[in-house]
Amino acid sequence: MMLKKVLLSGFAGLAVLAVGILIGHFGIEKGSSAPSWMSDLSRDVDEKLIQDGAASTHRELTRVPHMATTAGDEATVQYMLKNWQDTDTGLDASWREDYRVYLSFPNRDKPNNVSVGELCVEKAYQSEQDDPEVVQPYAAYGPAGEVKGRLVYANQGKASDYETLNATLSLTGTIAIVRYGGAGRADKAINAAPFGVIGVLVYTDPYDINDGLMSDENETYPHSWYLPPSGVERGSYKNHFGDPLTPYLAAKNGTYRIPVENITGIPPIPIQPIGFEDAQALICELGGSAAPEDWQGSFPCSYNFGGPGFASSSPFNNSDVTLHLYNRGELRDSANVMGVIWGSVEPDRYVIYGNHRDSWVHGAIDPSSGTAVMLEIARVLGQKVKAGKWRPRRTIIFGSWGAEEFGLIGSAEYAEEYVSKLSQRTVAYINVDISVFANATLRASGSPTVQNVIFKVNIPGSDSVSVYDNWIRYSNRTSAAYGNIPNVGHMTGAGSDYASFVHYLGITSLDISYTYDRSTTRARIYPAYHTAYDTFDYASTYIDPGFTSHQTVARTAGNVLIRLADGLLLPFNCSDYAETLEQFVSTAAEAFEAQLVANGISLEPLKAAVKRFRTAATSLDRTIHNSDLLLLLSGRPLRARMINDQLMLLDRAFLDPLAFPNKYGYRHVIWASRSSNVATFPGVADAVEKARASGRKEDWAQAHKHLSIVTQAISGAAHTLAEAQR
Amino acid sequence: MMLKKVLLSGFAGLAVLAVGILIGHFGIEKGSSAPSWMSDLSRDVDEKLIQDGAASTHRELTRVPHMATTAGDEATVQYMLKNWQDTDTGLDASWREDYRVYLSFPNRDKPNNVSVGELCVEKAYQSEQDDPEVVQPYAAYGPAGEVKGRLVYANQGKASDYETLNATLSLTGTIAIVRYGGAGRADKAINAAPFGVIGVLVYTDPYDINDGLMSDENETYPHSWYLPPSGVERGSYKNHFGDPLTPYLAAKNGTYRIPVENITGIPPIPIQPIGFEDAQALICELGGSAAPEDWQGSFPCSYNFGGPGFASSSPFNNSDVTLHLYNRGELRDSANVMGVIWGSVEPDRYVIYGNHRDSWVHGAIDPSSGTAVMLEIARVLGQKVKAGKWRPRRTIIFGSWGAEEFGLIGSAEYAEEYVSKLSQRTVAYINVDISVFANATLRASGSPTVQNVIFKVNIPGSDSVSVYDNWIRYSNRTSAAYGNIPNVGHMTGAGSDYASFVHYLGITSLDISYTYDRSTTRARIYPAYHTAYDTFDYASTYIDPGFTSHQTVARTAGNVLIRLADGLLLPFNCSDYAETLEQFVSTAAEAFEAQLVANGISLEPLKAAVKRFRTAATSLDRTIHNSDLLLLLSGRPLRARMINDQLMLLDRAFLDPLAFPNKYGYRHVIWASRSSNVATFPGVADAVEKARASGRKEDWAQAHKHLSIVTQAISGAAHTLAEAQR
């Protein structure tokens, strides 16, 4: 197995190099001696050092709530700047960049309220939850409004859920209660409005988050990691990423802003998240017929559709549910904190490492678990730089993004402001947001080209099994080229700040974290997510005692960062992209080909394009792995730059700014979001599904168009990989 | 004067170097000895050699009509391939690339006809005009149809012309006759249809083309260069460039094609171009009141509006004019012929030199004057390469585009197919289409950064005055930085194949030709343009006797090509872009600022962005002109590549694919087409004009949006010029 061999030979020096930093394809061979800076670096970055650093940094970051643009947020800005401007351990430079963005907050003087059963507040189990800066649960970007109507239960608020419900009763004038999951937050309201629903309540069912447990007497936090009955997941109820008033423009003073009423992808009707104790009080009183089996949750009652409204036997009988919501939009200044280590040889090539800084409340896990890791990596590298012992070949940029929780705003504004420079120069973007969801195993997603970079990181995990060996136990797949390997996920969504880098800029990206043992829990996410319980105490007690997984992620991400920033050749493997494209084509052929052909549309041009891509990738790979190349390159730096440019710009070739006119910010024709369940090219899959459903000739024509778009992009990418002569 | 100094010092070696090939900013200093390949090259490229080559090549190219995709076109494909694949004088490689494109032709069996006065055919003065392959005059992409109505005279067919006419009489059911000029070909029909006009005739008024002369007894061709009475300008009546059925996609077999009925930017009503003898017979019989003074032409009669229809005194009184048009669309295979000389040091950097190959008839001037120049340059360079005496630093790509006359189709399909590779690697595009409109003076247009490259070409012109000194006599402007210099035009239109490179790909481009002495003629263009009279005989007798101007253009364009392909540093001057931006800002401020401010919109962010751009450009210029840099660069090739990448990608930073949703293929926010007469940023100018006219708040908002778009693009460009540290 080729991969195994690379791993083995690449990591012969592991015992000496605690961090395991190896440079690209031509790193440390067995028996070679490490450059002095590398040994120096390895001496400092031992496990204990990162561990202590992460824990204490983490404690500092999570002392107070630091929702975007609040005083707590500003304190973290100052903390980042102090660290990155430190004369002994700081970076070459660090500065803040402010954007004036449109956020949405509850009204502190007029709390949102849901009547029929007063709305519970999140119960304070520790003093931190009593902090007056804890923002009350609300649906950011949900409109203010007072609505009143009969309650219905609409499962997860998917369009199909409302359709099912609408087949049973009239939804006009009703308030729907739905559980988290299945559909995006904003979509739960967007899907509801066309049916006449006038308000929505959202809660987290104990089935989905607590493995069914519900009692804070002995089951939930503070007795375990599970969500207490009054806990509420806050969140951005907004589908598009970036500042909502300045699409495609950085939100500076003076920038054109669309009218607030023109914002799309936000709830058209009032919506409010509530705790499951409130939800239980409502759902278990509902009348009407029983909802389907797969709509049922963990409450000890039948989940009924609603009469609409409550059962005649209920004390609430004949009562409406009333929502009094006072959310309001505000223009606020949100800061990114930037830091940089200039490259020694190619300062105009950037490896960007980022995470957001803002939280909903204290944000111990989200995002401070990631920020602590970023600070630790920056500190270790900064120290080497300040001591004059090391400088990477390429420039490393650290980004501490603001207002991510409101829809990836800081990173999106950054991408918009610097679109040309970033497009031209960025080698890769590394995102570590929540660094530790749980402490079982590594999880990674990214472009196929970086899979190999992550695999090469072969440091010991928390229990002395290597990260790689542990990972492959939990999550693996069969690759045509490599056999059984850990499964690296695709970046099709917009769950964190990588979205602007992958989807808008076409920058090769990856996202790393530690995550669950899925055999022990079916929790949608760690239960304190976006609640007032996500505190240092919670993190250190239940998520990562001893911060060992933080340390593993720090070493993994740091190792990847250095490989990308320091290798003479970039460690990207373009043949792995070919494997993914081939898989997409065969999936598309299996699912769609017969029907496409029946509609006069051929898959052959797409197949031919993928073949061309494979041929070009194989050829470039051969060049890169040619044993004489390193020798050759030492005297021909432009030859290395040429190959690196081909690798760096590969993902850029998949951008088509006109491919998805209705999907804001999505330009990458391989990784754009997809509604269809068929795991293939998103434009093709969604267009074919639509054509299948409608049978309309115009819809089949759109499927053909999307096939041509992706065919041209893949052919174009193949042209960029094909070697220039001489 | 800084520029003068550069010119003088740069050209000390001129006596030795007949071609004057100097490399970038660090070419041959006074007293330095030229590299051997340069002397070798200069020995071959003497005036006589180019002269002979151009004339004989020209004769070959123009023997038969070679309209796109005809047998004559295929013969030129074979001729190009034979030349570029020649073992002694050919290029490294040459090949054809075919696209399946939608063209429009008259029906050979059913000629288009205009009745009331039978339509004259172009009179044959020489056997060439009798060639059965001469395509009858028609409006390509004009619909087939038979329409009949009263005639009216509508000046140039501008929207305002139809408005004027409509204020006098009802246009419903009329046929309009209009002269060329003032509005695009297709627009003459597109503007007409909303007023109820059902057909359009187009002619060339002797006032606009012949300096008033009309008689073929003694005044027009074959007695002079002027258009004979039966001559008709053919043309593409289509506003968007590229294959009309495959917007943004290369027109391969299997590519998705839009329905023919969805093509936009083509005439919605029948339209036919006719000769001025036919036009005179119609116009001088029109009734109604006299048209305004500036609608009058050279016919010896009053140009009346039409009654509608003819005067009661006319023999045509009460007659309708009937158009019987039989044009039809066809899918045809059109070829680009590509040729390449691979770069020695940076094969992944491209300088592209192109011209179209297809003509309307024999196309001696359009395009063969340019093709002859391209072949000559390729032959001279190919000979050096084949002899092993020279190879450029960067790759040179020659493109002989097909189907340009139908709307820049070959070059647009090429740009679409290779969009990613070309965007990533192309240093510049040089277009020489009609190389000699007339033999008076050089004419050039291009990005401000290349102005300096053209100025440095200081070869002798036809009468021993240098090209530069001759040029500045005919066309000059005052530059803040340089004082009096030749005027290099802006590339705002889509008049030739540079359009896809500038507007769609954002590649720094230039267009070069020799042109008129405007004090001797007001002809819109050379009079045989797009007629059967554009023959070798016409070109060699009236346009460029002795082909001396062909030779001057060949040496100028060849010199520019080699400077771009061979310089260690690219010879682009980014400060000249700053000068243009400053001029645009001050023009915008003068024309718009008061009214913008009155509508709450500030120009300050734009002004600040331009200042940032100036600062960054000055800094980069200083780096480049630092006397120690050459020394430094010799040991640091990546430093040179970094600077060259900044220069190469500068125009790319001005692309915004979403800025002009209604302008197909236009993405460059500085050079996109503009309707407003205010010579500033096109999006801003057009949006402000619209807002001024309507006074609507939404329209002022759009003006603000365009200001923000251009501000962000300029800021972004400034960021790319600002030096990366270290």
TrEMBL record, chains A, B:
Family annotation (InterPro entries): PA_dom_sf, PA_domain, Peptidase_M28, Peptidase_M28B, TFR-like_dimer_dom, TFR-like_dimer_dom_sf
Taxonomic superkingdom: Eukaryota
Gene3D superfamilies the UniProt entry points to: 3.50.30.30, Transferrin receptor-like, dimerisation domain, Zn peptidases
One Pfam family recorded for the sequence: PA
A GO MF term: metallopeptidase activity
UniProt keywords, alphabetically: Aminopeptidase, Calcium, Cell membrane, Disulfide bond, Glycoprotein, Hydrolase, Membrane, Metal-binding, Metalloprotease, Protease, Signal-anchor, Transmembrane, Transmembrane helix, Zinc
Domain Transferrin receptor-like dimerisation positions: 601-721
Alphabetical list of SUPFAM superfamilies matching this protein: PA domain, Transferrin receptor-like dimerisation domain, Zn-dependent exopeptidases
GO process terms (BP): proteolysis
Residues in PA domain copies: 147-235
Compartments where found: Apical cell membrane
Domain Peptidase M28: start-end pairs: 336-540
Cofactor(s) it depends on: Zn(2+)
Topology within the bilayer: Single-pass type II membrane protein
A cellular-component GO term for this protein: apical plasma membrane
Family per record: Belongs to the peptidase M28 family. M28B subfamily.
Described purpose of this protein according to its UniProt entry: Aminopeptidase with broad substrate specificity. Has lower activity with substrates that have Asp or Glu in the P2' position, or Pro in the P3' position. Lacks activity with substrates that have both Pro in the P3' position and Asp or Glu in the P2' position. Lacks carboxypeptidase activity. Lacks dipeptidyl-peptidase IV type activity.
Subunit architecture: Homodimer.
Protein name as annotated: Aminopeptidase NAALADL1
Organism of this sequence: Electrophorus electricus (Electric eel)
Gene: naaladl1
